[in-house]
Specification:
The protein is an alpha/beta fold and 386 residues long. It folds into two domains: 8-177, Glycogen Phosphorylase B (Rossmann fold), CATH 3.40.50; 193-381, Glycogen Phosphorylase B (Rossmann fold, 3-Layer(aba) Sandwich). Helices cover 42% and strands 17% of the residues. It is built from 16 helices and 13 strands.
Length: 386
């Protein structure tokens, strides 16, 4: 009889974690059950700027929160909490995993790992934010970078992130490519047209009109200005079309001139009547299964979880040319059908209208994207490092 794999325990450290909007946080929720199935116990250490429970259990993960804000004194408190938690739980963990390498807590966590003899790995999250060349530009970044060089392994998700590491003189053998993954039990295609129609009734979506879905915070980085301007034009040709926006609405996000101005244009054009701002939801998968297309004109992403989740539901995608990410996700064969390159309002609008006007071709694209995600980004394969 084959011996079972010895249990291992991982401490994952992240500043933003649900219920806060966080792509990496939601990815951890996807990964943790897959790790648990492989005898890996996950503990999440995170910040609690609101009223979330200090301790909470999610499938595959125990969450410990420290009450602090995300900036200023909160960063100092979280950094000290990292140091204390790791030192006071000596022997509990086998590995420290830093999700993102920005923030004052990084050198404190790395120091604590060294003092307790733990291996530590760090995951780069966004080019221009926590990659080595970007960290070199600020005093705090240089402090963090010295700690990052002490990590046992650095995980990257795109070629530009890897290139930043190499240009900063990190050894190639210290780097590991690990993409994000998607749970195909949660994100899957509708079983039939009747299933899709039923979902629309349950979600209060009209049965016979074009429906696009956007998931993310209404930031310029996410392309919110392009999306709003595109929808104004789309309604001139498809006046009943509905845009479903899931995530932090513009009224609750940091105001940005481009997004504010685009919102005003959409309001004056009457387009907001056909835009449903739903805020954060736990049923994103259902809206993707009920929609006709993913509209995601993001200008920059760490990876793009939303894209692979949409692909898993066989939803055709219209996305921007994310540097080193879009092609990695959709592949060379589907790049031109999926990616608007260069990204601008006119081209993005026309691509969405193409999908609305040719449902058969859009369906074929969705099926091809589904095959791609099954081959490359199924969460079980990611958990075992395939």
């Amino acid at each position: 009889m084959e011996a079972s794999t010895p249990a291992r325990s991982v401490l994952m450290i992240i500043r933003r974690f649900p219920p806060m909007m966080s792509g990496k946080g939601y990815q951890m929720l996807t990964l943790s059950p897959a790790l648990e199935a492989r005898n890996v116990k996950v503990t999440v250490l995170t910040i609690n700027p609101g009223a979330a429970p200090r301790k909470e259990h999610y499938p595959g993960a125990d969450v410990v929160r420290v009450n602090a804000n995300l900036n200023g004194s909160g960063q100092i408190l979280f950094a000290l909490w990292n140091l204390w938690h790791i030192l006071s739980n000596r022997g509990k963990y086998d590995l420290v995993h830093l999700q993102s390498l920005s923030g004052l807590h990084v050198p404190f966590a790395v120091l604590a790992a060294k003092l307790t003899g733990l291996s530590a790995i760090g995951e780069l999250s966004l080019l221009g934010s926590d990659d080595p060349l970007s960290l070199e530009k600020t005093q705090l970044g240089r402090l963090i970078l010295r700690a990052v060089r002490q990590l046992n392994r650095i995980v990257y998700m795109s070629a530009p992130l890897k290139e930043s590491c190499l240009r900063a003189d990190f050894k190639p053998e210290k780097l590991a490519y690990v993409p994000n993954g998607v749970n195909l039990n949660n994100f899957h295609a509708p079983e039939s047209s009747a299933d899709k129609a039923l979902l629309r009734r349950q979600l209060d979506l009209p049965p016979d009109v074009p429906v696009a879905v956007f998931v993310g915070t209404f930031f310029r980085r996410k392309g919110a200005d392009i999306l709003l301007d595109a929808w104004i034009e789309i309604l001139k040709r498809h006046p009943q079309a509905i845009l479903v926006c899931i995530g932090t609405p513009p009224q609750k996000s940091q105001p940005e001139p481009e997004v504010t101005e685009a919102w005003t244009r959409a309001e004056k054009a009457g387009a907001l009547q056909n835009i449903r701002i739903l805020g954060q939801r736990n049923d994103v998968n259902l809206f993707m299964r009920a929609a006709d297309v993913l509209a995601f004109p993001s200008r920059a992403e760490g990876f793009g979880n939303v894209i692979i989740e949409a692909m898993a539901t066989s939803l055709p995608c219209v996305i921007g040319p994310l540097d080193g990410i879009s092609r990695e996700i959709v592949g060379d064969d589907l790049y031109n059908q999926t990616v608007v390159d260069p990204l601008n309002t006119e081209s993005f609008t026309e691509r969405l209208i193409e999908h609305f006007n040719n449902a058969g071709k859009a369906k074929q694209l969705g099926q091809s994207l589904n095959e791609r995600v099954r081959q490359k980004f199924e969460i079980g394969m990611i958990a075992i490092g395939r």
